[in-house]
Design a protein that fits this description.
Radius of gyration: 12 Å
Number of strands: 5
Order of helices and strands: HEEEEE
Number of domains: 1
Number of helices: 1
Helix content: under 10%
Shape: globular
Largest sheet: 5 strands, antiparallel
Structural class: mainly beta
Strand order of the largest sheet: 4-3-2-1-5
Length: 79
């Protein structure tokens, strides 16, 4: 099932959020109850792309830093 609100990349969400870090995102395929990705660092290349780093938060526990598919337009910001 596709979430129609997951229609931006991580860099666009960062810009819309006032360029504040950290912030949480989920992909269109994720169950929001399962966890989120906490984006901690952004480096803009050619807008609207760049590099981003974050940590998956599962059951309140942060995992090792990583970020997959930050450029794809399949993300939305969450609380």
């Amino acid at each position: 099932m596709t979430d129609p609100e997951c229609n931006k990349n991580v860099f666009q969400l960062w810009k819309e959020g006032g360029e504040k870090l950290p912030f949480k995102v989920i992909r269109w395929t994720w169950n929001p109850e399962s966890g989120a990705l906490l984006v901690e660092r952004i480096e803009i290349g050619k807008w609207p792309y760049g590099k981003a780093w974050g940590r998956f938060i599962r059951n309140g526990v942060p995992e090792a830093p990583q970020l997959n598919g930050a450029r794809s337009s399949q993300w939305k910001a969450v609380e």
